Amino acid sequence: MSERPKRKRPGFTMADAINRAMDEALGEDPTTMLIGEDVGKLGGVFRISVGLQNKYGAERVVDTPLAEAGFSGAAVGLALNGMRPIVEIQFDGFIYPALNEIFTQVAKIPQRLGDPGVMPVTFRVPCGGRIRAPELHSESPEAYFAHTPDLHVVAAGDPRNARALLRAAIRSDEPYVFLESKRLYRRERIEPEDEVAELDPTKVRRIGDGEDLVIFTYGPMIDYAKAAAKALAYEGIGAVVVDLVSLAPLDEEGILEAAGASGRVLVAAESIERCSVAATVVSLLATKAFDSLRAAPRLVSAPNRPYPPARQEDDYLPSHDDLLSAARSLVAK
């Protein structure tokens, strides 16, 4: 009996969208390169760059040694010599050895040379938890980068806008840190007509409608926020989800406008609360939108402790019930 052929699932995932963005960038601009550990022959640890080395060659899709500081420094040299490197970091927690290059070179050289377009480097960083991984594989390092002047930090958590967001980062002449939720790489499939073709990477994105509550979030918490909004709708609570998209700089105007529409704000993130992007959003609202708030903003995030072993991550990270509880308490005020 012949084996039944496997049916291809319709649509495409966030992983597909990111692959397409790099494919298009490499095809359009011969100065664009992709460098990183196992990005070539293996196609990346998450298989995000599958097929690109075969298509563009080993000189433009480059497998590097296991040395984040080394190939991040190489990206600086490439950019200074007219190239446009995309740097893949295998896991979020592996980027820490490269922080010196990112903070002291990538972020500072444009000002040092008086040329804002001299460092067109994009760091792709898989981030976030809930994948049952060992230590240093489920980090939320966004606050380090958001705290660094002249670094643009954006977060992708949805196949609808991932391709356009990465294309915008690669096209920019300024340095970007592009955070992509590894748990969401293949969690959702969409049809081509649902994809965002172009976007402004500095602006928030509204998901759905609701007048009772706004949920600000980004990256790994996008699907949790959407599920919470759907559950709240069954209770007669209208919640709109606002994807921050840009974590640095924040779209202050967009955030204040969305917050003022309902006066009730919930901010959700996987990161710890202390000195976080989410805490900065709450601070912004408290200082610039105080008169339009009907209740104090609520922040739902991880506790101020190191990321735990995999078996404990469900107790550590914000849950669906945490979001619902915070939302109900806000609406009750």
Write the layout of secondary structure elements.
Layout (H helix, E strand, L loop, with lengths): L13 H15 L3 E5 L15 H5 L4 E3 L4 H13 L3 E5 L10 H8 L2 H5 L8 E6 L14 H5 L5 E5 L2 H13 L4 E6 L23 E3 L5 E5 L4 H13 L4 E5 L2 E3 L3 H11 L2 E8 L4 H12 L9 E5 L10 H4 L3 H12 L2
Helix pairs in contact: 1-7, 3-4, 8-12, 9-10
Question: What do you see in this structure?
Answer:
- The chain has 333 residues and is of the alpha/beta class.
- The chain has two domains: 181 residues, Rossmann fold (3-Layer(aba) Sandwich); 127 residues, Rossmann fold, CATH 3.40.50.920.
- Strands 2-1-3-4-6-5-10 form a seven-stranded mixed sheet, sandwiched between helices. Strands 7-9-8-11-12 form a five-stranded mixed sheet, with helices on both faces.
- The model has no long low-confidence stretch (mean pLDDT 95).
List descriptors.
333 residues, alpha/beta, Rossmann fold, 2 domains, seven-stranded mixed beta sheet, five-stranded mixed beta sheet, 12 helices
Summed up:
The protein is of the alpha/beta class and about 325 residues long.
Decide which structural class fits the backbone: alpha/beta
How much helical structure, as a percent, in the residues? 25-40%
Number of domains: 2
The ordered H/E elements are HEHEHEHHEHEHEEEHEEHEHEHH
Radius of gyration: 20 Å
Biggest pleated-sheet summary: 7 strands, mixed
CATH architecture of the largest domain: 3-Layer(aba) Sandwich
| Beta content | 15-25%
Regions with pLDDT < 50 over 5+ consecutive residues?
none
Shape: globular
Give the C-level CATH assignment of the largest domain: Alpha Beta
Annotation, overall tally of beta strands? 12
Strand order of the largest sheet: 2-1-3-4-6-5-10
Instruction: Tell me the CATH topology of the largest domain.
Output: Rossmann fold
Number of alpha- plus pi-helical segments? 12
What average pLDDT do the residues reach?
95
* CATH homology-level superfamily of the largest domain: Thiamin diphosphate (ThDP)-binding fold, Pyr/PP domains
Q: How many angstroms does the end-to-end distance come to?
A: 65 Å
